[in-house]
Specification:
The structure is a homotrimer of 343-residue chains.
Chain A: H1 3-10, E1 37-39, H2 46-51, E2 56-60, E3 69-73, H3 76-86, E4 103-104, E5 109-110, E6 115-116, E7 121-122, E8 127-128, E9 133-134, E10 139-140, E11 145-146, E12 151-152, E13 157-158, E14 163-164, E15 169-170, E16 175-178, E17 183-185, E18 191-193, E19 200-202, E20 207-208, E21 213-215, E22 222-224, E23 229-230, E24 235-236, E25 241-242, E26 247-248, E27 253-254, E28 259-260, E29 265-266, E30 271-272, E31 277-278, E32 283-284, E33 289-290, E34 299-301, E35 306-307, H4 308-318, H5 321-342
Parallel strand pairs in A: 1-2, 2-3, 4-7, 5-8, 6-9, 7-10, 8-11, 9-12, 10-13, 11-14, 12-15, 13-16, 14-19, 15-20, 16-21, 19-22, 21-24, 22-25, 23-26, 24-27, 25-28, 26-29, 27-30, 28-31, 29-32, 30-33, 32-34
Antiparallel strand pairs in A: 17-18, 34-35
């Protein structure tokens, strides 16, 4: 690819005549070779980038330097992400079209530009849009609809009637549309399984990590909003809705019917009880246990989840707790002595 | 389905002549249409149910009202669960019988009434009972026995010699019979893998969630008891036994050889050390870390797991800890002044 | 198998003429029958072993007894592990060679001694070494290299270009080489997905548990070192490296670019932030949240992770916190009275 193509794609100017350089990838300063572009997402990497072998560097506007061809942009990290997408290998892993070893129901409608890997099962009345890339040994059960340019990696299970948006990415081992964990308990304390009649909707540009499980709703759908990013091994229970552009790190679990707002950032191994609301633009720290509604823009952590500063103060204080106990005993003793004296 | 059939199934009386109404589903008051039944599991939903479009309402005995046809029962939530099962679509997702694209060993015995989806591999000497429904791309390794009317969803892996009870449900991505995590450490601090010779037994009516993993025992089996309900992404280590009618929420992990009693309720993201006993009818709160035996009927939470009230008191107190530190310093100062005076 | 073969394998002496006993397995004292060997890994099991039906017992040197044939060794638990491996059934679960229902790209090179199960997909340019045993319905994407004698269980997904060492074990449902969770956030707070160009390297003798997910690196590889043991449902993020002979229990998560040293022991449900270093021979307790570098040989637990003794002291003290609050209030009151008196 010509350097000029990258510059145009990320909206950076280039000195005349420099755009014809051939570029074969984008990488970190430390692993860069002369045929690659690198980037400076934090000024602490500036020196490394200068000394790197890279043929060009994406830098923040005004931070260009003379040692290298510099592509100046507003946000080098975003521009790196965009440039990296240019180098992504989008060819289907198992060839174009429907692999002869795929098992496709005759009523399924698969766009001619889509690819379906070997061993993948496509059920009745499934619709798969243009340019979708579906890996090997997936199961796409009856009635599933997938938009355009979605990427379904090998080994994904999409259960019946789920709806997957355009450009969505679902990684290997993810399960979409499992039953919710709903059980009624009878007088003998036996559980009666509650069937789920809802579906799962994954909206455009959402991404689901490896071995993440998303349960279908009871009556209403479970919804993963537009542009939501879910990491690996996340549990999303029935009737949860996650609004657009929220990101959730690995191993977090969200219990039934909880509503997560827009642009929320949730760290790893967080747990949420059911039936609560998490406000837009809030931030939830790693390993937090969230049992109440969270205000928009709030930053909470800990279990029970509290304001970040409060939790940090409690943590710091708790280290002094053993000494505090001793000190209070000492105070008691000395006070008793004083009381005796003062009688 | 006729309303009368539902009434009979849940043991509710109906006014004469009302049973002939045709019903096409059961749902929440808010999503009900005129061809559906709804239910009131909590009196706070009563008004909503009255105003809903539903043709009939399941309510607690004595709480019937004139606005709707009411089906009065002892426990509306249990009756809702039972009624919902009537509307479940039990038809196999990939057609009756053994799909031509299933890969079945000639020595496997599969009941004629069972269904096996495309891409599913059935190994040597496997037995699959009547009315089992097995999805697509499962693997059922050699020697596995499955009772009657079990439901094995697409993408489940059941490893060799596991035993699955009747009416058990195993959801997509679950792994039954993986090796236990057993390693001996030699003088050079290298690990020597310990092979597992035990199996996994999943008893009747048990349910295993998506991407839950259950390790086989070392010598004795790992046992998931009758009617046990496991949510998604749970880890059950080797030689664990879970006794009947216990329920465990998502992302909980149970270490090797721990015994969980009957009717225990375990919330999400709990961790248990190995070789402990969890008493019948106990309750373990979310994110608890359990490192000791738990008494029957105990309610514990936190890490280390302690009595609920104790933990709540500690949590509340800890918020006052930073102020407490200041107060104790002030007390010390004032006491010293007093002591000087009193000399 | 002759008892003498076991004795030779674990380096134990046997009285003359005893080696010809036929042995059909190794098991715990309580489940031993007369055709099996047992072992005493802890002296508390000594009496049980004496009374067991076992034909021979592996014991610590000097602890032999007259009731049974004793195989005396330096470390009975290690010797048990080694002896158990002699009894492991190494025959492929779905027969020798490439199963006719496997789907193998013509460019793949599979050693004649390897076995590949039905439904398993092997992509272009894959190399599989001698004596590898690959289960059913796996996906081994293009460019993957697997050493000798590796065991890949049914349902494993190994994504493109991953490298798997000799004698590695990868259990069912594991995903190797999923994309890292990297997203740049633009001015509108939308996430731009960052493609990953790195791979995953799993070195010799490493073991990966069921449904564990290992993300590929951004540029550099994610590395699971020689002899590393990972339990089930673990999340390893992009660019993590885990050095040799480290063991990690279930449901632990390690964030991007964190480096874990050699011979580290990590308990279950631990979380690590990204970009930190965990020293050699350290120990991390269950459910710990590790947000800073850990020194070699340190033992930490809790969240934030601190020295074990400190955490235990804080835990013990915290139980006294509610009483402490009351006591400090009482002290304040009594001090005020004294102050009034002393005026």
């Amino acid at each position: 690819m010509k350097l000029s193509a990258i510059a145009v794609h990320i909206g950076a100017a280039l000195p005349d005549g420099c755009g014809s350089v051939d570029v074969f990838g984008i990488t970190s300063p430390e692993s860069a070779s002369a045929d690659k572009v690198t980037f400076v997402s934090d000024s602490k990497y500036l020196e490394q980038a200068k000394k790197s072998a890279a043929c060009a560097v994406i830098v923040k506007k005004g931070n260009g330097f003379s040692e290298k061809l510099c592509l100046e942009v507003d946000d080098p990290y975003v521009s790196y992400a965009r440039a990296a997408q240019l180098f992504e290998d989008l060819s289907p892993l198992f060839g174009n079209g429907i692999h002869p070893a795929a098992i496709v129901d005759t009523t399924a409608e698969i766009d001619k530009s889509a690819s379906v890997g070997p061993g993948t099962v496509v059920g009745a009345n499934v619709k798969i849009g243009a340019n979708c890339r579906i890996g090997a040994n997936c199961v796409i059960e009856r009635g599933v609809k997938i938009g355009e340019s979605a990427r379904i990696d090998s080994g994904v299970i999409i259960r019946y009637d789920s709806q997957i948006g355009s450009r969505a990415v679902i990684q290997s081992g993810a399960v979409i549309g499992s039953d919710g964990f709903g059980n009624a308990r009878n007088r003998d304390k036996e559980f009666i399984r509650i069937p789920c009649f809802g579906i799962v909707i994954i909206e455009d540009d959402a991404e689901i990590g490896a071995c993440t499980t998303i349960d279908r709703g009871n009556f209403e759908p479970t919804i993963i909003g537009k542009g939501v990013k879910l990491d690996n091994l996340i549990h999303i229970a029935h009737n949860v809705t996650i609004d657009e552009n929220t990101a959730i790190a690995a191993q977090t679990g969200i219990s039934g019917s909880t509503k997560v707002g827009k642009r929320v950032i949730i760290a790893g191994q967080v747990g949420f009880v059911g039936h609560i609301n998490i406000g837009d633009d809030s931030f939830i720290g790693a390993k937090a246990g969230v049992s109440k509604d969270i205000d928009p823009e709030a930053k909470v952590t800990g279990y029970p989840a509290r304001d970040f500063m409060t939790v940090r103060r409690i943590e710091a204080s708790s280290a002094q707790l053993p000494d505090l106990l001793k000190e209070v005993k000492a105070l008691r003793k000395e006070l008793e002595l004083l009381k005796e004296k003062s009688v």
